[in-house]
Design a protein that fits this description.
It is built from 13 helices and 16 strands. The chain is of the alpha/beta class. The chain has a domain of about 190 residues: 3-Layer(aba) Sandwich (Rossmann fold). The chain has a nine-stranded mixed beta sheet, with helices on both faces. Strands 7-9-11 form a three-stranded mixed beta sheet. Helix 1 links the parallel strand 1 and strand 2. The longest helix has 21 residues. The protein is globular, with a radius of gyration of 21 Å. The structure holds galactose-uridine-5'-diphosphate. Galactose-uridine-5'-diphosphate binds next to helix 7 and strand 8. This is UDP-glucose 4-epimerase. Keywords: Isomerase, Lipopolysaccharide biosynthesis. It holds the Pfam family Polysacc_synt_2. Belongs to the polysaccharide synthase family.
Length: about 350
């Protein structure tokens, strides 16, 4: 990261009390950033963060992305914004799709419009692989967030707010996810509940997710979507790797696929890959900046999409069980759990 990028800047993080906010703060507090604004709904989480960090550069704003006034209030005077506020639990979005729509779509629209009106330099919106070819309300609303961001970006000129998105895969050990669940099950001596042994997910550490956000911020052109190339594993291999690390002999029980989940995730579609730039560890997907006058594009013709494959957790690098063990061992949370149970 280039610390100069944050020197003297005022930074806003929406949804800043979540795991992204905590980790991102650790990184930018090391720079000469002028001010960091944490915007979120939950005063208790803000208070705990304030007591833990005791850093006068951090200001706390209570608000909700659904309320434009509260976003406007927090964004006044901001240079850079990172939009992490979202409803991201698949099951709750499934049961309350209108709530997902209000926060993830209407709320994101508020953030985008407010950023443009206040002429901030750059806005990065956090999305997910579940937004690609979505099957659940969480993914659908995140996909719409990307569309809202890009539709706004398309209207902007050079020198105006730069708007970009990043897509995560599964962030390992994130709250409510399968890794802490499996560890807990082992601690209780219960079977590991595997949905479908062959189901695959892209695996990303929280630190790599932060690096992706920083990369996007540093390299974004108007309307870009960035993804980080990532390996994947099957859930069966993930369960086995955890059993090996924790020297656990609990059985693996197959419970079947849950509501609204896919056998594999897609990070970028074939169509997007045709508009993508390979940047080493990252891919930049350019915004489709065609205007509504489609006829001229048909006569010019489009390259053959059939020749390219989607980039999915089924066809990316597949980690072996020992490789998953190594990756798990690099996570501070897993190291802590192993120490607690006396395995390290
Ligand atoms: O008891 C379980 C729970 C999950 N899984 C499997 O483990 C994998 C990962 O499951 P997670 O619940 O950790 O992750 P998801 O891919 O379902 O989605 C997660 O990441 C999303 C963001 O991309 C959202 O935050 C979502 O709420 C969060 O659960 C999936 O294949 C799932 O089927 C099991 O085998 N057994």
């Amino acid at each position: 990261m280039n610390a100069q990028d944050f020197k003297g800047k005022t930074v806003l993080i929406t949804g800043g009390t979540g795991s992204f906010g905590h980790e991102f703060l650790d990184v930018i507090r090391e720079t000469d950033v002028k001010e960091i604004r944490i915007f979120s709904r939950d005063e208790l989480k803000q208070e705990l963060m304030r007591l833990k960090l005791k850093d006068a550069r951090i200001r706390f704003y209570i608000g909700d992305v659904r309320e434009r006034d509260s976003v406007d209030q927090a964004i006044r005077g901001v240079d850079l914004a990172f939009h992490a506020a979202a409803l991201k639990q698949v099951p709750s979005c499934e049961f309350f799709p209108m709530q997902a729509l209000m926060t993830n779509v209407v709320g994101s629209h508020n953030v985008v419009e407010s950023a443009i009106n206040h002429q901030i330099e750059s806005l990065v919106c956090l999305s997910t692989d579940k937004a690609v070819l979505p099957v659940n309300a969480m993914g659908m609303t995140k996909g719409l967030m990307e569309k809202v961001a890009q539709a706004a970006a398309r209207q902007l000129n050079e020198g105006e707010t730069k708007i970009s998105c990043v897509r995560y895969g599964n962030v390992m050990y994130s709250r409510g996810s399968v890794i802490p669940l499996f560890i807990n099950q082992m601690k209780q001596g219960q079977p590991l509940t595997v949905t479908d042994p062959q189901m695959t997910r892209f695996l990303l550490s929280l630190r790599s997710a932060i690096d992706l956000v920083l990369f996007a911020f540093q390299n974004a052109r108007q309307g870009d979507i960035f993804v980080r190339k990532a390996p994947a594993s099957t859930v069966q291999d993930l369960a086995q790797a955890l059993k090996n690390l924790f020297k656990s002999d609990v059985p693996i029980e197959v419970i079947g696929t849950r509501h609204a989940e896919k056998l594999f995730e897609t990070l970028t579609t074939a169509g997007e890959l045709m508009r993508a730039e390979d940047m080493g560890d990252y891919l930049r997907v350019f915004m489709d900046d065609r205007d509504l006058n489609y006829a001229k594009y048909f006569t010019e013709g489009q390259p053959d999409e059939q020749a390219v494959e989607d980039y999915t957790s089924h066809n990316t690098e597949r980690l072996t069980v020992p490789q998953i063990e190594q990756l798990l061992l690099s996570l501070p949370d897993v190291q802590r759990e192993l120490t607690l149970v006396g395995r390290q």
